[in-house]
Amino acid sequence: MSVPDLSVDLAGIPLRNPVMTASGTFGYGAEFAAHMDLESIGAFITKGLSLEPRAGNPPPRICETPGGMLNAIGLQNIGIDAFAAQKLPFLRAVKTPCIANFFGETIGDYAKMAARLDAIPEIAAIEVNISCPNVKKGGIVFGVDPASAADVVSACRAETTKPLIVKLSPNVTDIVAMACACADAGADAISLINTLLGLSIDLAKRRPTLANVTGGLSGPAIKPVALRMVWQVARAVKLPVIGIGGIASASDALEFILAGATAVQVGTANFVRPDAAPRIVREMGDWLTTNGVDDVKTLIGALET
Amino acid sequence: MLTESFVLFNTEISPGYRRMRLLVSEAFVRKAAPGRFVMLRVNDSTDPLLRRPFAVFDTGAASDGAYFEILYRVIGRGTAMLSEKKKGDILDILGPLGKGFSLDDSAGEKLLVGGGIGLAPLYALARKLREASSTVRLFAGGRVRGDILCADAFEAIGVECRFTTEDGSIGERALVTQPLVRHLESLDIGATIYACGPEAMLRAVAKIAACRAIPCQVSLESRMACGIGVCLGCVVPGRRHSVRTPDFRCVCAEGPVFDAREIDWKMSQ
Ligand SMILES: Cc1cc2nc3c(=O)[nH]c(=O)nc-3n(C[C@H](O)[C@H](O)[C@H](O)COP(=O)(O)OP(=O)(O)OC[C@H]3O[C@@H](n4cnc5c(N)ncnc54)[C@H](O)[C@@H]3O)c2cc1C
Ligand SMILES: Cc1cc2nc3c(=O)[nH]c(=O)nc-3n(C[C@H](O)[C@H](O)[C@H](O)COP(=O)(O)O)c2cc1C
Question: CA nearest B39 in A: which residue?
């Protein structure tokens, strides 16, 4: 059999394979150049960007939990100006699509960010984070209410012709209602899930482990929740879905694809192995070959229930 | 750099403390400068999920290649799993990472201050400094005799050692900062301090150095996930930090060794 076809089309962006790296776990890309071949993955997503630079939350910001970790980084980032001034030459040199993740504190901020990113040719698509659970003034208000989420998406849609990906929060009762609201407001793709809101307690100190008290749970522990949400959303909306949550192997990634994801993002696994994403690409090819599948696209949504 | 490496030995050197030697490449050893660290994966399951950070304790040439050592204390699940590794087992290493000690060329004494397992990065440093014929003194403190590690190794390379314990079971019954201050008071040439240990000790050493305008480098510990500066989980407040104008430094990428003046010692965890 010939080499299996791993390429997919994500809302008009051709990807050499469906494996991308998730926002906040991959820096601005360059940090990983020493550890892996950036041109072996489908695309990479930047750390969440905002109009102004942000210093983030006080420490401790992270703690390990069974099969996962909690983080309350507080959306620390260099800001759009520094990003545009410093990071673009690197992006120009890498032949892999870069997707910019961003957030704002008001609808106006979101719209301004969408406009700024729209003007940057090195950015292939934009991913709007309406779902960060960490910052009191942050995305949370938008991400849990379908009407507010739709307002953010329409405001961004008006400012960009680039593919607009909306990244959903899992901290809602009805994920399908959120996805439908975003689709109706003009999103080109839906990515899910962001981290699940959690709490860790240091019993000896009788205090929360994180200075922020609560944090976002990520890693293998959240995979079943993410898979379930991807499956529900993929059946309900016509847009391509990007599966995120606890992916650490090709089998994890392929399960998301079966559940309906067109592509996936690898997050926390990058911390365990900086070459996690390229390994998944390799193993995925091997799996397809072993199982006689010549095109990964035939697996998208092929779950039999 | 990701390396799969053979365990050469993993020996208990004092109750609850171990020294582990790993076979690595010469390229690895060249990068393993004093004060840098590695992220070790204690098993290949998802529990525990994250790697564990350890300082470069020693490096050298072995009969069958180059080697690298860590000195560690068994305190939790990850280090307990590490303590079970045997000769011939394979360990997955990410590193060497971070910014190590800067070896300042100025004359004067090099004063190493270690609290408990904080001694770990100081041995590689002592060797480097002794190779340059510096006068190197070690002030090592612990709660009890068993916390004073590898004294022979330091003495064998010509380091003057002073020990303190909280119970007086070895050395002086004092905090490690007491003989340090006495020594500084009697010293009429310059000195540089290099410290690693519990935060309270580092804060006290930083203050002693600041009062006397002595250069001081500290190696910090912080919970970290990635070790390569992307998760931004391991930050500590820097010198210009305030609630309104935060100044955070990333321990894994900007450190773990910092000039003590760069750290905001008011805000402790
Ligand atoms: C740069 C650096 C160098 C270090 N060098 C050494 C060394 O040479 N020898 C040594 O014995 N220890 C060293 N430590 C501390 C060592 O990393 C911890 O003791 C170890 O991670 C504990 O893991 P555990 O699973 O046994 O403990 P647990 O308490 O079960 O660990 C739970 C989580 O907390 C983290 N954690 C717990 N204690 C620490 C700590 N003190 N610092 C950072 N993270 C911690 C763990 O990595 C893990 O993610 C170093 C830490 C850092 C940051
Ligand atoms: C340390 C850390 C920082 C993150 N930062 C962001 C961010 O800036 N923007 C965002 O949309 N998601 C962010 N995320 C969420 C991830 O992109 C991803 O959605 C989530 O971690 C679930 O995937 P995983 O289980 O593979 O990590 C962050 C996650 C972690 C662990």
Answer: A272
